[in-house]
Amino acid sequence: PSEPGFTELQQHLQQMDEDETQNIAENVLGRSVIHDVIRFLLLYIRNFGAPAEPKDSAKARAGRDSRNLGIVLSNTTFFNTPGTIWFAESLRKICRNLILLATQVGIEDANGRLNRITERTILGLSAIKADSAELIERVNTVFFIANLQFSTYMKFNTIKLFSKIEQTQKLERYLDQVNKAQVVEYRYWVGRYRLLQNEPREARELLQLAFDQCPNSSRNKRQILIYLTAASIPSGYLPHPMLLYRFDLAEPFLPLINAIRSCNAHAYRSHLNDLRWMEWFSKHEILFGLKECGDVLIWRGVIKKLFRIQYPTAIEGMSTPPSTFGQPAIADQKPERKYLHYSHIAAALRISYRDASWDNDDAENVVMCLIEQGYMAGFIRHSNQTVGLDLRAPFKLPSVAVSR
Q: What is the mean pLDDT of residues 200-221?
């Protein structure tokens, strides 16, 4: 409707009745595969925005327009037919307008129609030459539709619809032929989805690729970095402060990073509970993830610092030398262990949280959680209230590092 000439064409079609409008497509195109698509498209243009009843609401008109436009997209055979790729740009515009209309009345029906187009287009790709311009155009169209759907899902918090993401993943082998902007957007949306699914490592890989490929001049680079940082923190990778300052993200994230580095749980929680930043993190749907991962990283950091204080000469992660002839390999020998008492861990946690209620039972729960989640390698000695740490690699994950 915002396209130049839309209003003029609509006024011209409204001077005819519906039968005359439908005859235009048949007279020009005959009974071809494109006939029904153009016929229903002309009817959609003719009736767009016009109330069927005098008292029709804007929502009712949008619902009718959405259904009419959906009929245009119902002939998925056409979009799968070789030689019709010239219609790809119009198809993208139709899909965008369908989503805009559907957001006013509910996106489920529009989502179903777009999924069918995507499925049909994917099925038809195998019949097209791998190096042809038609293949590239079709793949670009599929990724355009997918990104359009993903952005709508996020906007309306309908994450359950992301299950359809699997069909688009079949096309990842074509990514090197897809428009760079579409690839960046695709990886951004899938990365955000993985983050919401509590898969921070997978999310970080995708968001890092999107960030690296996004032009420095793009305003989207800052948006990508917000979620890249949220995915990196749980994995123990912290962005350099200069990067955060460059994209004006130091104020929300740097206090969290400094709190993790200094093992200051009180400062970490205080920043997240600050009303201003609580609203900001909630708006970006990363508050819960940051709360959940912050405690675990700080627990690990507290025990790691305590370990270094008590055993300053211990070598973390030392490599195993080759076996000497006639002697057992070091790896086959019983590993050396060092022990930390729960009372010392509890005392360190009381300092970190500024909370005198932490006791030995809490310390044991923390240790069990870290070992179970793979943040620490050791075993618990309940009778002595200690945890034994393997000197070869007591802390499995890499130390908190600086990402690119």
A: 91
